[in-house]
Each structure stands twice: as C-alpha cells, then as structure tokens.
C-alpha cells in the first residue's frame, strides 16, 4: 500500500529530509539518501555506490556521509552481516524502535518486517534508560520452509 507514494520524486524527498535537519544539500548527501529511499531493502556502502553509478562519490565520502546522516537520524544501520553494514532510511522505523530484520539461516537472505509488533522489553535493571531498540530475528523464510518439505534432509544423506 506504500508502493504508490514510493514513486514520488526521491530527490525531492532527500532534499526535504536534509532541510528538516538543517543540513546543507550536498551532492553526496542527496545521492546517498536518494539511493536508499528508492530501494526497498537495506544497502551496503558498495551497493549504494553501484546504485549511484558514475556520479558516485568515492568510498571515504560515502562512509563519512553515511555517518553524518546517521548522527542526524536520517539513516539507520539496519544490521551487520559478516563485516558488511547495511543501511536504510530512518523513516522506515519508529523513533523508539527499529523494525525487526529477519535473516533466513538456510538461504541467508534478510528481510525487513515493517509491520511486526515487538513487545516492550521488561525487567530492565534499575538506573538504565532505554531510548531505542533493534531486534534481529533468525529462522527459515517461506521459500526455504517449502523447499525442506519436499527435499530429503541433507544431514541424513
Ligand atoms: Zn531503524
Ligand atoms: Zn530462506
Ligand atoms: Zn529494514
């Protein structure tokens, strides 16, 4: 249902986000935000560069820009996979809680669960104040569950 609005001008959206944080609209910031906004899944720094193509800023600039965008809460680090950090627009998360990410232990694909409800964490030790939470889920995706149903278990062969 969000699909329609996704086709709005992503560059305009990127400009609006920078304006809302009183950040200057530099070429790297606009291009990186646009690349993240127009993609439906989190991206690594390399994937961002690929999507921007020939106009892409260099690696160091992309890294520094991502850090700036994270500091202003425009971009979140969605998750880490191996040593790769995956980024996505912060607008896809609630202020106090990121949507959970589910990684399939069979095919390795990670999915965003935008609508999953996460219960509040209870029994936080006294003196600690939780401001934000991120949850990582693991299991079998729908595809892999179907596969294992009709194929012999590889461990038994
Ligand atoms: Zn988030
Ligand atoms: Zn899978
Ligand atoms: Zn996500």
Helix content: 25-40%
- Structure annotation, total helices: 6
Question: Could you say which structural class the secondary elements and strand pairing correspond to?
Answer: alpha+beta
* Average pLDDT for all residues: 90
- Largest β-sheet summary: 3 strands, mixed
Q: What's the architecture of the largest domain, going by CATH? A: Orthogonal Bundle
Shape: globular
How many beta-strand elements?
5
Set down the secondary structure blueprint.
Layout: H1 3-6, H2 10-20, H3 27-37, H4 45-52, H5 59-71, E1 75-81, E2 84-89, E3 101-104, E4 110-112, E5 136-139, H6 142-150
Parallel strand pairs: 3-5
Antiparallel strand pairs: 1-2, 3-4
The protein binds zinc ion (3 copies).
Please describe what this structure looks like.
Strand 1 and strand 2 form a beta hairpin. Helices cover 36% and strands 15% of the residues. It has 157 residues and is an alpha+beta fold. The protein has six helices and five strands. It has helices at residues 3-6, 10-20, 27-37, 45-52, 59-71, 142-150, and strands spanning 75-81, 84-89, 101-104, 110-112, 136-139. The longest helix has 13 residues, at 59-71. Helix 2 (10-20) packs across helix 3 and helix 4 packs across helix 5. One zinc ion (ZN) binds next to loops.
Short characterization:
The protein has 157 residues and is α+β, with helices and mostly antiparallel strands.
Which structural traits does this protein have?
single chain; 157 residues; alpha+beta; Arc Repressor Mutant, subunit A; Dna Ligase, domain 1; 2 domains; three-stranded mixed β-sheet; two-stranded antiparallel ribbon; 6 helices; 5 strands; binds zinc ion
């Amino acid at each position: 249902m969000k699909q329609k609005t996704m086709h709005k001008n992503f560059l305009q959206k990127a400009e609006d986000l920078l304006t809302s944080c009183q950040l200057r609209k530099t070429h790297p910031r606009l291009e990186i935000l646009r690349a993240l906004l127009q993609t439906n899944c989190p991206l690594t720094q390399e994937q961002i560069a690929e999507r921007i193509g020939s106009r892409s800023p260099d690696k160091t600039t992309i890294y520094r820009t991502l850090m700036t965008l994270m500091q202003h809460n425009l971009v979140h680090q969605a998750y880490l996979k191996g040593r790769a950090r995956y980024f996505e627009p912060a607008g896809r998360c609630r202020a106090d809680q990121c949507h959970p990410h589910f990684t399939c232990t069979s095919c390795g694909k990670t999915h965003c669960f935008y609508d999953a409800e996460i219960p509040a964490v209870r029994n936080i030790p006294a003196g600690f104040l939780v401001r934000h939470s991120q949850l990582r889920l693991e299991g079998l995706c729908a595809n892999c569950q179907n596969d294992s149903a009709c194929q012999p278990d590889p461990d038994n062969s």
